[in-house]
Amino acid sequence: MENDLILKSKNELKEKVKLDEPKLYRVLIHNDNYTTMDFVVEVLVKVFHKVPSEATKIMLEVHYKGIGVVGIYPYDIAVTKINEVHEMARENEFPLKCSIEEA
Question: Cα 7 vs. chain centroid, distance in angstroms?
Fold first, then answer.
C-alpha cells in the first residue's frame, strides 16, 4: 500500500491511499475413477455457476486430461468454493477433489 498526501486546500492535507489488487488463484478440479460425470457437471453448475454446456466441456477436459481449471478467484472465494465442492462430494459419497494454485 502506498500513501500519498494531497494538498486539498491552502491549510488542509488529505491522505490518498492506493490499494493493491488482490492476488488471484485458479481453482482446479481433479479426475478420479469413481465420481460420475453427471455429478461433476452438477457441481460446476451449482458451485461455479457454469451453464450446462460449459460445465460439460470442463468435465470432459478433466476426464481426458486429468485436471481442469474451473475458475479464477481471490483467495477467500477460491477456498470457499473448494470447501463447497468437497462438502457436496462428501454428502454424495464421491472422492471428488479440487485444489488451488496462484494464477
Answer: 41
Q: Which residue has the cell 481442469?
A: 68
Say whether pLDDT at 6 is over 80: no
Q: What's the helix, strand, coil split of the chain in %, to 5?
A: 40, 35, 25
Name, in order, each residue with C-beta under 8 angstroms of 47's C-beta and a sequence gap of 6 or more: 81, 84, 85, 88
Separation in Å, CA 15 to CA 1, 12, 39: 12, 10, 52
Q: How far apart are CA 78 and CA 25, in angstroms?
A: 7
Q: pLDDT of 59-94, one tens digit each? A: 999 999 999 999 999 999 999 999 999 999 999 999
Residue 7 has pLDDT above 60, yes or no: no
Give all domains of the chain, ordered by start, each with its CATH number. Answer: 21-102 (3.30.1390.10)
- Name every residue whose Cβ is closer than 8 Å to that of residue 101 and which is 6 or more positions away in sequence: 25, 26, 28
